[in-house]
Amino acid sequence: MNHAIRIHEYGGPEKMVWEEVPLPHPKPGEALVRHKAVGLNYIDVYFRTGLYKAPSLPTSIGMEGAGIVEAIGEGVTEVAVGDRVAYASGPIGSYAEARAMKADRLVKIPEGVDFEQAASMMLQGMTAQYLLRSTYRVKAGETILVHAAAGGVGLIMVQWAKALGCTVIGTVSTEAKAKLARDHGADHVLLSGEDLPAAVKKITGGAMLPVVYDSVGRDTFIPSLDCLAPLGTMVSFGNASGAVPPIDIGILAAKGSLYLTRPTLASYTTKRSDLEAVAADLFDVVKSGKVKLNVNQRYALKDAAQGHIDLEARKTTGSTILLP
């Protein structure tokens, strides 16, 4: 027997329904994974609402999971039956008790990492890895800005950047989240609604920043640009407040010949060798204790709609998982 959360049309959390679905048989190059934990991420909201379009409807959603390989298809060499594995990639469909996945998108979970940790870290943690180590490779002594610093990606980025020797400015929506960000190493925490460029100017003595990491989107895009030093890099990697509207790229010249990028994890892990390297770096920093994972919310998989409600209401902190 197999069940999954599926949507038959785009919309609110009420569109998510718990249904019995066929247990898939792995095709050549695939592995059947029995989930032990599933990650809940803001990208799941985008697919539920239709901001990001699914290939077809009805569909299950979800990008991240961890579990045990139950069966493999012809030609699979990357994993074996019984392996503990995790993933954070398309196609969507992790909100299920079991699913078939391309075997070359699975990574083996090392000893010392449990299923809940793996399910909570793969998408958020590998996102933090490529943002800090590839998109803009931060250096010791730099001051950086991380929006949504008390969120899943944010808390990982704050800890990792501190371990790399950075001074971290974080933004959050509440005082409680400000305390959480500080407790995880943020040097300065700003509340939503503050004059962001003015605060950054004061903190940096007018030097401004080499990079801003922005997962909020529409509400913070222009203020984030105004926090950058000339030749600074704006990394826009999420839309929690809504999509950034079209812009005249001349604004980048006017504000100091800025760089702007809209990266995705998929682009940084297209090759299996890259996927394995990103995951290994993440596992290493977690096992070292430099980055501690925060699974602060757990919901039954069948109650995933409540998880979406709480996530969109900004009631969650750290990582959230769904348990089949």
TrEMBL record:
Record's keyword terms, sorted: NADP, Oxidoreductase
Give the matching PROSITE patterns: QOR_ZETA_CRYSTAL
Give one Pfam family.
Answer: ADH_N
Name the Gene3D superfamilies on file: Medium-chain alcohol dehydrogenases, catalytic domain, NAD(P)-binding Rossmann-like Domain
Q: Which residues form the Enoyl reductase (ER) domain?
A: 11-322
Q: What is this protein called?
A: Quinone oxidoreductase
Which NCBIfam families does the UniProt entry name for this protein? PRK10754.1
For this protein, the record's InterPro entries field holds: ADH-like_C (IPR013149), ADH-like_N (IPR013154), ER (IPR020843), GroES-like_sf (IPR011032), NAD(P)-bd_dom_sf (IPR036291), QOR-like (IPR047618), Quin_OxRdtase/zeta-crystal_CS (IPR002364)
